[in-house]
Write a structure and sequence with these properties.
The chain is mainly α and 127 residues long. It contains five helices and no strands. It is flat, with a radius of gyration of 23 Å. The termini are far apart. Keywords: Membrane, Transmembrane, Transmembrane helix.
Length: 127
């Protein structure tokens, strides 16, 4: 009996979600744009922190596209190029490259957090 109602339930949920998003998203976008215009430094800092957190949470999103395999012939095994090539092919280099990307992301996010903490006592949000 529940299986028969699932399409109807999903249709109701989809319609209510559509109405909620259509009603709130434009207002939220305008409010966010006003806040960014009033606080450009903080917005940039929060954006930077977001990039750092993405690097920590999913380093493959950033590292994998950059690790294309090239065809230059024979490469010495312990070299940086060999490690990058291996990571691009999903080999042993992944275990080296992804943690490096995560450390870089953690550093970026920490630096952005420090900037927020340093700037917070000096100024209040304008919006």
């Amino acid at each position: 009996m529940l299986k028969a109602n699932i399409p109807k339930i999903l249709a109701v949920v989809a319609e209510k979600s559509r109405k909620l998003i259509a009603g709130t998203f434009p207002q939220a976008a305008v409010q966010n744009a006003k806040w960014v215009a009033a606080n450009p430094g903080r917005a940039a800092t929060y954006g930077t922190a977001g990039v750092g957190l993405v690097l920590v949470a999913a380093p493959a999103l950033v590292a994998a596209p950059r690790l294309g395999v090239s065809s230059i012939g024979s490469v010495v095994s312990p070299s940086l190029f060999a490690t990058l090539q291996s990571a691009g092919a999903g080999g042993y280099g992944v275990a080296t490259i992804y943690p490096v990307a995560q450390v870089m992301g953690g550093t970026i996010a920490s630096a952005a957090g420090a900037c927020v903490a340093w700037a917070k006592p000096k100024s209040r949000s304008k919006a």
